[in-house]
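Tutorial handout. Part one gives the primary structure; part two gives the three-dimensional structure as tokens.
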Amino acid sequence: MISNVIRTCFPVAALAVADKAEEINKLNVFPVPDGDTGTNMSLTLGTVVREVQDLPQDASMQDIAKAITHGSLMGARGNSGVITSQILRGIAEGLCDVKNPEAVTPKDIAHAFRRGKEVAFKAVRKPVEGTILTVLKDVSAKADSLEKSQLTPVEVLDALVVEAYESVARTPELLPVLKENGVVDSGAFGFATFLEGFVNAVTGKTETTDFQTTVSVSDAKAATSAKVEIELNDDWEGSEYRYCNEFLFKADSPDFDEEAALNFLATMGDCELLVGANPDYKIHVHSNTPNKVLEYMLQYGQIFEVFIHNMDLEAKERTEKIAEDKKAAAAPRKELGFVAVTAGSGTESILKSLGVDVVVSGGQTMNPSTADILAAIEEANADQVIVMPNNSNIRMAAEAAASACEDVKVAVIPTKSVLQAFAAMFVVADGVPFEELVEEMTDAISGVRYGEVTTAVRDSSAANGTPIHDGDVMGIQGGSIDVVGSDVMQVTLDLIAKMQEEEEGDNLTILAGEDFSDEQLDLLASKIEDTYPDLEVDAQRGEQPLYPVIFSIE
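Part two.
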């Protein structure tokens, strides 16, 4: 049944794009006019997956097509996402016309791609050769040529994947800016990746995210890869338009004039798109006056989910990232590297000042994945790497990443707080054998007692049975809620007093969270120094979220 195939294979194909999102992003030579192409396509596809999964098991192809159309429209991000949504809409509509859902034919496949091409090209007023639309057109033409062949549907799909990658490899010959920068079109590459992932799922070639292509596709992919690996463009000089505007629009009247709205958008800038069907539309345009775009559309309906991106700033960030990548690629491989996880610009700066090579963003409520940590280990560019997860919930992911490394020797120091990572880095010395250094760093964290102050988000009880209510301030020591109150300053002082009473320390390090002001930090440090004149106090900005104060006593 065709509906079951779509439900099974679409998520696999979406995951294929998500896995290659960063690779697709780096092909963006325009340079990031709507954020990043790979990310935008992945987010668009992800919304479709969720809508389709929410359907009942007996949903018809018509129901699935509506979910694909609505999901891709609502979730479309950036120019690439909007165009992808229209390709998906058209193909889904074409599949609704299949006469025998149990036995799809080459003719049905050709019809679906023709419909996809028709809808996508209708949405783009000025199609450009050498883009995702070119690949769609070539794939549709290939399907047309095989419509009356004796090939099986699976053989036709395989042939379309080959054509997709061959078309991607041709994009630099069609679009000068691609050839100048030695890359293929990012949206085209993303579309080929999606198509291959879908076909692999149909044919059962893989059940994992490591999509293996057929031999017939490998040559075309090799040609693509050769172009992808050439140096990326990092000298974009700007665009006539600064802002990328995209939002959802619900028309007030069934007589809403789509053509008039498109004509107006064209006067505001370029890359204008208005897709959907009355009353629900997705609008996209590059403009220097986003306020005028919104004001115009408000005359005819409601706007929501408004995203306005500053493309100049995105271009600058991308250029800086490319420069960092180049620097990292050119740097000689080190003998020893360090990776740490933290949340907060202040803690990140401190870690890097202590010698940590790569900092992974994450912590409580936003635990990084094994893949995130594995990527950081690779980025460290070292033969031996030490990882500090700085949170109990992240330790297993760190150990899984360490186990997955084949060419790098990795050890995980079981740090539960970034403050323990500080202590571990203080004992690092040149020339110490790896195993001995790991042991010394592990010993160093055992002498660090740490406290955390945060706000309760639900009712509970402290270690001594004191009731905790939503909104109360809690002082936590080593995972135990030992102090409850209503004031961050007082709870911090009470927790320090309790910890000092249990075991007197000589040094106290405080990290102020993003919501704890410099004035509050100075006052807190002053009160601690007045109470404990022999305690060495080091107050720093950590900028961590959720925890206005974290501290350690040694």
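Part three, for discussion. Residues 153-174 form the longest helix (22 residues). The first strand starts at residue 243 and ends at 251.
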